[in-house]
Amino acid sequence: MTRRLISSGSPFERQVGYSRAVVQGDWCFVAGTTGYDPETRIMPEQAADQARNALKVIAAALDEAGFALADVVRATYYFTDAACWDEVGPVLGEAFGEIRPAATALIAGLVKPEMKVEIEVTALRRGAG
Questions:
Q1: What's the pTM?
Q2: Distance (Å, rounded) from C-alpha 15 to C-alpha 36?
């Protein structure tokens, strides 16, 4: 079974040793993705904007891998503060409201103080399994 690595172009991928996504057979595993703007590499202040940016990067990685957001079967959301949930929940609903993957939301510290949200997903190619 072929393993394919997907890069978002971030210099941290090689430096730290990870891929934005890994495709293994009919599965695509997308790494935890924070809210830096993919073009400017600037982190917005609002948690909702961070979530939108993270979802944009995730969608691009899935697309490059031959998947779509509709293929997501599992999502994990990390928040630095439970108060972010009310702000980010509607953004997640816009992206996953009809898809409804199995999901978990956790409160955790993230590696940079400006990070408020991190999103990780797993997708299964439609028609597989």
A1: 0.93
A2: 17
